[in-house]
Amino acid sequence: MKKLFIVSVCCFVSLMRFACSYELPIIEESLTCQIEIQIQKPVYETFQVMVFLHGAQDLGLRSIHPAVFEHWLEKGYAVAAISMPGYGNSTGERDFSGPNTLDALHISIDRIKEELAVPKLGMIGFGQGGLAATLLSAQRGDIACVVSSNGGYDLLRHNASDDILRSILENKKYQLDLTSEEDLIVRSPLYHVSEMSAPLFLLHRKGNPIVSEQEAVDFHDAMLAAGKECFLVIKDKTPTDDEQQLSFEEILIEAESWIDEQMGRG
Known about the structure:
Blueprint: E1 3-9, E2 24-28, E3 36-40, E4 49-53, H1 66-74, E5 78-83, H2 99-116, E6 121-126, H3 128-137, E7 143-149, H4 164-171, H5 181-186, E8 200-205, H6 213-225, E9 230-235, H7 248-262
Parallel strand pairs: 1-3, 4-5, 4-6, 6-7, 7-8, 8-9
Antiparallel strand pairs: 1-2, 3-5
């Protein structure tokens, strides 16, 4: 059965000068679901590519503020975003960065690379998008760098009945068995450190009630112990944000120069 693979390629004009806007629907036979992708490209002949993965917002890629894309476009990057299965206009089951999500992301990344004719790309993920991007680094050799903002790294720490993340996954009916060690490990970067290929930059907030600071520290330390390149920045707790999310401005302050260096623009 053929499934619709939607690619919204938007090299758009507003007050910026880098070009035109169009949408390209593609029929992709190998997909088991419909995946929503947005691509924005500068007019330059050569450019690097940043791919963004959203968090738990139902809107999928539309939950990422347009200013995020505009910032990187103005720097001369091409940008792309993917709605993971079950989010935005993507169909399929939400499995919290499990096999279904990663399969869809693999196909989406291949399509992005084909559309933009690039050999590598960088990734920035928010929340579960950070988890997915980190896991992809263990499965692909064409990711130049990953920034994970408030990601999770060890789901085995969340199997207690009163754990906040476990409650969220149960209430939102994600497709995974929370009693299965195998299901939790396959979604936990901590147990795939040896396969990690890309340099990682982890940003985390003190007081994050869902994923503890220590979980991020332990993953960072495991990466270093394995001889992998990994940086960790833990931002101070803020009194106004219950979930202790990180703003895009904070990500830029901490990681932008590192991203440019990893992408060959430093």
